[in-house]
Amino acid sequence: MSAPSANALDRVQSGLAALNPKSIAARDGMPAFEIEAEQVREACRLLRDACGFETNTFVTAIDHFPAEPRFELFWQFLSVQHNDRVRLSARVTGAHPHVASIGDLYPGTQYSERECYDMFGVVFDGHTSHAGGLKRLLMPEGYDHFPLRKDFPHQGIEPDKLYNAWFQRRFERHEREHADV
Amino acid sequence: MPTFEYAPGLLPPRAKPSGGGADGDDPLHGELLELNMGPQHPATHGVLRILVELDGETIARIEPEVGYLHRGKEKTCESLGWRKFFVHTDRLDYVQPLMNNVGYALALEKLGGVTVPERGQIIRVLLCELSRIGSHLIYLATTGIDLGAVTMFFFCFKQRETLYDLLDAYTGHRMNNTYVRIGGVYADVDERVQDAIEQWIAQFPAAVDEFEKMLTGNRIWYDRNHGIGAITKEQALAWSLNGPNLRGSGCDFDLRKAQPYSGYERYDFEVAVGTGGDCYDRYLVSIEEMRQSARIVQQCLKLLKETKGGEFLAEDRRYVLPPKDLVRSSMEELIHQFKIVTDMALPKGSAYHGIESSKGELGFFVASDGTSTPLRCHIRAPGLMNVQAIPMVAMGRLFSDMVSLIGSLDFVMGEVDR
Amino acid sequence: MGSLKPVDEATTQEGFLATRVDELINWGRKNSLWPMPLGLSCCGIELMAMIGPKFDLARFGAEAARFSPRQCDLMVVAGTLTWKMAEAARVIYDQMPDPKWVIAMGVCSSSGGMYDSYSVVQGVDMILPVDVYVPGCPPRPDAVIDAIIKLQRKIEREQPLKARLSGANLDHGIGSKAFVRAPNHSVPTRGSHAVLPPGELAP
């Protein structure tokens, strides 16, 4: 992986030169850059059009609670034609975490963005997908918490709340419908 | 969706007009029907729920709903620690547990800077390829049932049972083996197990021929797969598809060749590439991958004979447990063991490693803050991307095609939902 | 059954007729279990292996797996049940006609197992009554076959005729209140999420 990475570093550095990204020495030797959260869309567009990264590998976040800015977001891309990878990162604050969606540039990120919202509560502005707007992916709709935040306990908070409410509604409806039996 | 109760109107606004599915003589054309499929349905390969709106026989709108098997694995890693999470990686894609182990171990080794001894790498490749065969067998068996070829289930499970027995003899459990450790594997391969694997793999290509005899030229199988769910190379790349789904579309990209890990560069094998990107191509790619895996397994067995008695586990006392007999006799090793079990910390930083799993690129993105509590372990699941592609491919197609489509995209919900 | 004449208590408890009819019904029930494989995760694969050629569940009369709950009387919960899936599992259970039994296959469905996390039900007995628990992660198919044999022993001891004649409302159709049944309260559950108190749900 080391040989193609050097090539990717130059390519991305020249491709993203206008945005002045900060190069990070990642432990796995992958070219990694930190950019401003406002520039993410532009950077991803440049990566796709100027640097030949066709595929998004994942979008995810790290919660640095209680440090601020709290969330560190990651986008990793793979170039099949050049056989190399690049990783972008950006920090957003914990008060109103939001960043531009790249779902229209890379349609493969739609579920990743929904998952990131589901798990961390990071809002992807302008997210459009076949599923409509940005909504939860893994946890049920109506769930109150963002489970992968560091201040959320592993065992959860009232994990059965939605189920019990559903069961109660169902039971009451059944009682109503069969009151005469 | 707040409740499980199915109510019409749950689907999002229609994305694009329907058309191009059923023939013009579909008597039900223009009649809209909302249909709920799953989460408990034999054709959804697990607990996937699919909401469909049908226009006659044609799919007008479709939305997969995942998360019915979300077990909070990434959170679990943060509370368990790096070592104990190995058992959880097994249950990700539970038809190929050992491959998940390898992917996770490789990511941790990259972060920690551990080198795996040669024999350890060979055993890992052996386990990976056996897992790949097992996974493709499940794909064939379940897709076969869905499309009416129920015999495939018995043919494939006959082979898979033997594979289970071999893994049972080697690792001690039929599935969810947890056999890979940071720095290598838990124990060396027994020679009798090696011989048994050799015998089994020698007859395996003939079994694949048998599968092919049943399916490849089969008129029903051909008609129900050929031209169904075609994905172009550009679409596959944009929608983050990897593995057989990308190679079926004619893109010659295999991480084992492109970015070799665990010494894959020393094995002689071909990458199967399709042309049309439809279900039939993906089927052919999977069949060919089983043959190539069998070739790799044979080479592994040969290499294992050459490296007999070699190290299979790195002697890196930061992360690798010392042998038990040394722990009982040496104070230093006891301290090592205690340190590793109680608070094994990985160096500060982040690392990603992707391996070529049977369904695509299985990646682990691990980040550590230098303490023994993991900061983050993100699992890049190929299955999630495959589920994501369902609407893209199924929209405007016949409803009956969706069964072969879901089968051929090949995902396992344990990995999709994590 | 409804056309049978009422029999007084003493006769039903020890009477020759009731014992023999019970035996016949139980013999029929235990040897023709129709499993409903609720294959949720890893255990589902072992469940497939159990039905497959080597372990061949047909030897115990329970190979007719149907994916429609309306045709089944044995639910095998194979795998991790999440709270999101729990609603579906409960609906499926309620849709099964009586008499019905449940096997919790694997530690996840028995007790939550290794998943002590925010999304996993800590044992299906929180939402359903369970007859047999099978440990293992996943249990080997032999273990599940053993569970089915144990369930057959349990069915042998049931007294369907007595229950019918004692006047209990066994008409568990959708039209009866009894279709919402209280879970197994004899099983200790952790935390506050034991379901509603039995008095509110019992028929």
SSE diagram, text form:
The complex is a heterotrimer of chains A (181), B (418) and C (203).
Chain A: H1 2-15, E1 22-25, E2 31-34, H2 40-49, E3 55-63, E4 71-79, E5 84-92, E6 98-100, H3 110-120, E7 123-125, H4 161-177
Parallel strand pairs in A: 2-5, 6-7
Antiparallel strand pairs in A: 1-2, 3-4, 4-5
Chain B: E1 32-37, E2 49-55, E3 58-65, H1 73-80, H2 86-90, H3 97-112, H4 118-146, H5 150-171, E4 180-181, E5 184-185, H6 191-215, H7 219-225, H8 233-238, H9 244-247, H10 255-258, H11 279-306, H12 324-329, H13 331-343, E6 349-357, E7 360-368, E8 374-380, H14 382-394, H15 401-409, H16 413-417
Antiparallel strand pairs in B: 1-2, 2-3, 4-5, 6-7, 7-8
Helix pairs in contact in B: 3-4, 4-5, 4-11, 4-15, 5-6, 6-11, 7-11, 11-15, 14-15
Chain C: H1 9-14, H2 16-31, E1 35-39, H3 42-51, E2 74-78, H4 83-95, E3 101-105, H5 106-111, E4 132-134, H6 141-156, H7 160-165, H8 198-201
Parallel strand pairs in C: 1-2, 2-3, 3-4
What do you see in this structure?
The complex is a heterotrimer of chains A (181), B (418) and C (203). Chain A is an alpha/beta fold and 181 residues long. Chain A has a single domain (2-141), classed as Beta Polymerase, domain 2 (2-Layer Sandwich), CATH 3.30.460.80. Chain A is built from four helices and seven strands. Chain A has a five-stranded mixed sheet with strand order 1-2-5-4-3. Chain A has a two-stranded parallel sheet with strand order 6-7. In chain A, a hairpin with a 4-residue loop joins strand 4 (71-79) and strand 5 (84-92). Chain B has 418 residues and is of the alpha+beta class. Chain B has a domain at 73-315 and 346-380: Cytochrome-c3 Hydrogenase, chain B (Orthogonal Bundle), CATH 1.10.645. Chain B is 48% helix and 12% strand. Chain B has 16 helices and eight strands. Chain B has helices at 73-80, 86-90, 97-112, 118-146, 150-171, 191-215, 219-225, 233-238, 244-247, 255-258, 279-306, 324-329, 331-343, 382-394, 401-409, 413-417; strands at residues 32-37, 49-55, 58-65, 180-181, 184-185, 349-357, 360-368, 374-380. In chain B, the strands form three sheets. In chain B, strands 1-2-3 form a three-stranded antiparallel sheet. In chain B, strands 6-7-8 form a three-stranded antiparallel sheet. In chain B, strands 4-5 form a two-stranded antiparallel sheet. In chain B, a hairpin with a 2-residue loop joins strand 6 (349-357) and strand 7. In chain B, helix 4 (118-146) packs antiparallel against helix 15. The model of chain B is unreliable at 15-20 (pLDDT under 50). By secondary structure, chain C is of the alpha/beta class. Chain C has one domain: Rossmann fold, CATH 3.40.50.12280. Chain C contains eight helices and four strands, in the order ααβαβαβαβααα. Chain C has helices at residues 9-14, 16-31, 42-51, 83-95, 106-111, 141-156, 160-165, 198-201; strands at residues 35-39, 74-78, 101-105, 132-134. In chain C, helix 2 packs antiparallel against helix 6 and helix 3 packs across helix 6 (141-156). The longest helix of chain C is centred in the first third of the chain and has 16 residues, at 16-31. The relative contact order of chain C is 0.15. Mean pLDDT of chain C is 74; it is low at 170-203. Classes of the chains: A alpha/beta (181), B alpha+beta (418), C alpha/beta (203). Chains A and B meet through strand 3, strand 4, helix 3 and helix 4 of A and helix 1, helix 8, strand 6, strand 7 and strand 8 of B.
